[in-house]
Amino acid sequence: MKALVMEDVKRAVVKDVPDPQIDSKGIVVKNMANGVCRSDWHMWVGDIDFVQPIIGHEFAGVVEEVGSEVKNFKKGDRVIVPFSGSDGTCPYCLKGDTHLCDSFLVPGVAYEGGYGEYVGVPNGDRNVVHIPESVSFKDAAAMGCRFMTSYHGVIDQAQVLPGERVVVYGCGGVGLSAIHIANSMGAEVIGVDINDNNLNLAKQMGAHHIINSINNDPVEAVQEITRGGADVSIDALGIAQTCLNGINSLKKGGRHLQIGVTTQKEAGYISLPIDDMVMAEKSFITTLGMPGHRFEPMLNMVGQGNLNPGQMVTDEISLSEVERVFNDMSDYKTNGTIVVTKFD
Which one of 82, 103, 178, 257 is most buried, by most CB atoms within 10 A? Predict the structure, then answer.
């Protein structure tokens, strides 16, 4: 099969590689669409060590082969593979928090991932999800990481309510997802970015207000729009400035949701205004992936047209174009969600 193979930091090459092999519990998925995620970029630039030669964790396709012990899937089924996989044996899995599984069965990390024509998924009955005919492969790929993470973060973790004011810093794939989901919950949403194209997409995805933080002080602008501060702030980038701006945009009692992970510059650490957070009772909340049992309600909302992740997709590319997108990500030049749909 063809695959994009990581050879070194900032070097990935399209090659012919062996097809994946599975055990009795595995499923081989013929890949139809794979989202190009900033997490992949983090591996490409060396922020995160890559352990698999084929990365990628936002893919959907058709079941090509199933192991002898697989009960819930057959060849030809349309499926998505959530990035937060699990083995079902650890205490977190047994509690239902499968996204926090100690085994951390992430495609492209625990096994070869979505930048290939086929993917062998372990523990297939647990780690593959049916998608209805009403959900396209392109839409499904847009859900595999950033959308589901935002869904879990906005609805389950930050618990955004109708009528609340939500500000989202960073209008890339994660931020646009958060904007769209918060809007669907009835919130008044503000999108903040330095890229006017991203801000235009934010309006299309449901932002009621947009702020270009190059031309305006975003914290002051948010305070003015909300008349005292947002109920919820979301940092979709993981940059120190956007994290702090999010916290400083909150009113007393506000909740900050951290979705973005840091870059090499922050190296995992951001200094927070703890005294202000304590005195104003501002909460700091994090989110990672989504428990498996939460996929059904999200897919139902997509199937009913209440959520439209495909609206974020701005380009469909081939494997050979992925490095160009990574380079553009380095300069924050990408807009929306870019999906690989050509694997030959």
Answer: 178
Helices (H), the chain: 38-45, 91-95, 124-127, 137-142, 148-151, 173-184, 196-204, 218-226, 240-248, 274-279, 295-303, 322-330
Final residue of a domain: which of 244, 259, 286? Answer: 286
Q: Summarize pLDDT for 93-115 with one digit per residue, the tens.
A: 999 999 999 998 999 999 999 99
Judge whether 277 lies within some domain: yes
- The total of structural domains in the chain comes to 2
| Cα(282)–Cα(289) distance, integer angstroms | 23
DSSP 121-183: ESSHHHH-EE--TTS-HHHHHHIIIIIHHHHIIIIIIS---TT-EEEEE--SHHHHHHHHHHH
Overall residue count recorded for the chain in this entry? 344
Residues facing residue 340 across a β-bridge: 34, 317
